[in-house]
Amino acid sequence: MDSLKSFATSVKSYSNYFSMVLVYLLIFLMLPVDSMLNTNLQSQVKSTLSHVLSNYIAKVFLAGLVYVIWLTKDAMLLILYLCLLNKLGLY
Known about the structure:
Layout: H1 2-13, H2 15-30, H3 33-37, H4 41-52, H5 56-72, H6 75-88
Helix pairs in contact: 1-5, 2-6
């Protein structure tokens, strides 16, 4: 349990950076990039992330990350993380 708390403190110290990465990734996934540029870059990124994170070990890690973010008491980071998981279709 102490290792989770130490991991939570390191996540909390970098929460601004994590939040910005999640915001940029969510904005990228929400913009109509594929239809405007006639590419499938956005769908490739989304399918690759979904494929990598869809196995059982990754899902256990993602659930553990929800708990660690909960320990940091950073509501914005938790909301952004859950929105990203929803956008990827994982939960």
